[in-house]
Write a structure and sequence with these properties.
334 residues; mainly alpha; Mitochondrial carrier fold; transport; Mitochondrial_Carrier; transmembrane transporter activity; MCP_dom_sf
Length: 334
């Protein structure tokens, strides 16, 4: 004993910083996803209800009904599953997206400093990410839809719920009714939606970031003269716009998917994609079809709240993704 106290930290900061740098995409995506998922979940719950309601209803009125019948918890029913699973799915998605872009860079593919090359790489990377991730995310999204639509599904069965079953009870009932395959109800639609939607999303995001001055190295340059905004606002702007526009394009497929899954969970007769889409647009009576534009308006019922959710969720997602990523890049080496 020489009287000197030796520092023996529990965590080696140098090693920890190196770990963060090696796993920057995962850490950034997880951190950003927790915040954005929690912020946007009440709007996502309203969106699912609007997609499956049989009579037109405004968002404020629906929100009032949910609050009156289910309380605040009704807006967050089933939150913990997407809070945990979507966060890890997004981390995996961003990792696949990032690694695919690195493969293009390492092989010197599509290297021109043009919006076409940048967008194509983003779209291909997004499609790869969406296709692979859909296999893991499909069961969790089905359970989320089940939890969000508990009362609607019960009403379809002629049952009145005094209290909605919990998440584990919902999973157990799906499994007991249809086995493991039941957790993949509507998977083909889920796969197509995620592949196309994620491809469009990353294609648009990378293209917008290029227009807003991001360099091929990933560094944010000066914003263009026609939109001289603060550089820190660029991720939120591009994330919001790409989230809203890609979702609007893929929205009809999501409506059909949700409707197919709702009918399957309620034990109703299966309807194919085209039959479901036709009935949503033209109504259930072929002899007396609804006006086309009225049917299309029904398809996009809930798009407003979904757009608001996309602005909130994806704007915050990319803002915090970039913030955490920049923080990790600036960590000291020792």
């Amino acid at each position: 004993m020489d009287g000197k106290r030796t520092s023996n930290p529990v965590v080696d900061s140098t090693a920890f910083n190196e770990f963060l740098r090696r796993n920057k995409a995962v850490v950034s995506a997880l951190s950003a996803s927790y915040i954005s998922t929690f912020a946007g979940y009440p709007l996502d719950s309203l969106k699912s209800r609007l997609q499956t309601t049989k009579t037109p209803i405004s968002v404020p009125r629906l929100a009032a009904i949910v609050y009156r019948e289910e309380g605040v918890v009704g807006f967050f029913r089933g939150l913990w599953i997407p809070l945990m699973t979507i966060s890890f799915v997004r981390a995996a998605s961003f990792t696949i997206y990032t690694r695919t872009k690195e493969t293009f860079r390492d092989h010197q593919w599509l290297t021109r400093n043009s919006i076409i090359d940048v967008s194509c790489i983003g779209g291909i990377s997004g499609a790869m990410s969406g296709a692979l991730i859909s296999f893991g995310s499909a069961p969790f999204e089905l359970v989320k839809v089940r939890r969000q639509l508990e009362y609607s599904i019960a009403a379809s069965r002629g049952v009145q719920l005094s209290k909605a079953p919990g998440t584990f009870e919902a999973v157990r009932e799906i499994f007991l009714t249809n086995g493991i395959s039941g957790l993949y109800t509507g998977f083909r639609l889920h796969f197509v939606r995620d592949t196309l939607g994620t491809a469009l999303y990353f294609l648009e995001y990378d293209g917008m970031r290029h227009l807003m001055g991001r360099q091929r190295s990933g560094e944010q340059g000066p914003t263009p003269s026609w939109l001289p905004i603060n550089a820190s606002f660029v991720p939120f702007l591009c994330g919001s716009l790409s989230g809203v526009t890609s979702w609007a394009l893929i929205y009809p497929l999501d409506v059909v998917k949700t409707k197919v899954q709702q009918r399957a969970l309620a034990g109703e007769r299966y309807r194919g994609v085209w039959e479901t889409l036709y009935r949503l647009i033209r109504g259930p009576d072929p002899a007396n079809p609804k006006p086309l534009f009225a049917g299309l308006a029904r398809i996009y019922q809930g798009l407003g709240v979904s757009a608001l959710r996309s602005i909130t969720t994806h704007g915050l997602l990319w803002t915090f993704f970039d913030t955490v990523g920049n923080y990790i890049d600036n960590l000291p080496d020792r």
